[in-house]
Amino acid sequence: MIEAMKAHPGVRKTLVPGTLTRYETGGLTPPLPVVAALEDIVGLAPGEISSYLPSGKASTQDRAAQWSLLTRADAADTTPLSGRDWLELATLITTGTPQSPERIAFWSHLLVNEMSRSTCAGYRLRIRALEVLAADPVVSGPVEDAVRDHLAACGHTVIGDALASLTEVQHPRGTALALQTYRSLRGEPTESVAHVLAIDLRQGRSKRELWGAIRDTLREDLTSGHAELEAVATIVASSLSPWQLRDLLSPLSRDQSRRVQLSIVRSRPETLPAADAREFRITCASLARELAGRMNRRHEDGLATWLWRLLVDGTDPFTAGLAVSASPYGHALSHELERRFWSRPAEMSTTRGTVGRATEFPFTSVAMGACRRTDPETLAAAYRSGTPSDKRRLLTPLAHHRAFPADVDLATAIRETGATSRVIYAAGMSGHPGLTSLDGSGIPTGQQRAARWWANGPDPGRLAS
After folding, report:
1. Among 26, 28, 33, 37, which residue's Cα sits nearest to residue 4?
2. What is the pLDDT of residues 225-254, one digit of tens each?
3. Distance CA 459, CA 462 (A)
4. Burial of 231 (C-beta count, 10 Å sphere; 0-12/13-18/19+)
5. DSSP state, 427?
């Protein structure tokens, strides 16, 4: 391995086994050229490992390379940059020669656009580039403007990642924008914003002065009597600290308070009854052994812990999903989750008792949306033969594999699944030809605008890296 690495540009010819071991165990952060060499040697896409590493504090390129990057960035509206280029550009913008406000605004809009259409390593590199820009006090304003414009332009079909790029780095107006968006929406997109607010609150990043507005909004939704509003508000409320929950419930009647608390308890995997939690842990360990056995004869190491984080824990299942999907186990896990939970006979889904309740993991849908398959055509086949409920749940995995069938009529798909935003998202990520003609048929004006935004964007196939 060391000899193969030394043949790659940028890898020191003095690399020795001890240093490589420290890279592997986390004792040292490996230089990017070493990781790029490893990705190439083992056949991974560029960035599949390196996109998880900390960003550099300064550009590593020489002046000629920086000039070339800036020139290509100015033409990125016609020739998209790679995810690695975007991260290098963000680092250069925030540590190198100041750029004009017009240039920053142009790049920020392009980056948000590309990030929202990307998958895998290309997505992770672009979201990190966006966070680098959003965290910089000099250029954070244009980044916020780009996110705001994006929310409306895409018809709110893909908004969670854009908002999270602000809240993750504690952008001064990130949480306020997320709350404003949450208040203005109804239907499917609201759930994405709810998860952004929930993670922000759970990690204690929200500004304390915003708590009053968050509390009043949640209280209104939780007592509205509207099932959809109560469900998304519960996602946010489940992340509250004890004092925040007391403040939220204090003016409510005893019956209202009891009902809200019960909904929150049921939504929190960490408050599962001991028997259910034990059943989940046993199932995660069993699943880890089974998946590891398909790959090699080694012990499954920490895979069971990662599966718990992804499928049950709920602290941040989206990040855990990205990590597991980049591992060798993503393909097998995706198939196994579909076999166990999405292809069950109806009589199995109504099993009673502890084992029945623990059959499907709380975050199975998140895992299915994240895990990568090497045979995405099986997802398309499952969609064609599935029930309306199956089809609805398969829309996100199909989007992330760019595999939504091109011959499926979009108006029919919307009617069958009742999920307008998700159908447009899956179709947009897959470059579906029907987006350009998706109008009328009872489709709201905002969703027609979303379809046009997806249809007029960069070719999804060019955003792979």
Report:
1. 37
2. 898 899 999 999 988 999 999 999 999 999
3. 6
4. middle
5. H
Q: Measured between alpha carbons, how far is 219 from 212 in angstroms, rounded to an integer?
A: 10
Residue 365: Cβ within 10 Å count: 19
User: Which of 347, 344, 279 lies closest to 312 in space, CA to CA?
Assistant: 279
148-159 average pLDDT score: 90
Give dist(CA 34, CA 12) in Å, integer. 9
Give which of 33, 43, 46, 42 is closest to 7, Cα–Cα.
Answer: 33
- Going by the DSSP 8-state scheme, the letter that residue 187 receives in this structure is S
User: Is the Cα dihedral 220, 224, 230, 232 positive or negative?
Assistant: negative
Q: Is 328 in contact with 320 (CB distance < 8 Å)?
A: no
Q: Which residues contact 298 (CB under 8 A, 6 or more apart)?
A: 292
Please give the single-letter amino acid code of residue 322: L
CA 13 from centroid of its chain's CA atoms? 38
pLDDT of amino acid 318: 82
Give, in order, the Cα–Cα distances in Å from 42 to each of 199, 373, 463. 34, 18, 22
| Class of residue 377 by CB neighbours under 10 A (exposed 0-12, middle 13-18, buried 19+) | exposed
The Cα 404–Cα 34 span in angstroms is 36
| Lowest pLDDT segment from 167-181, 261-275, 441-455 | 261-275
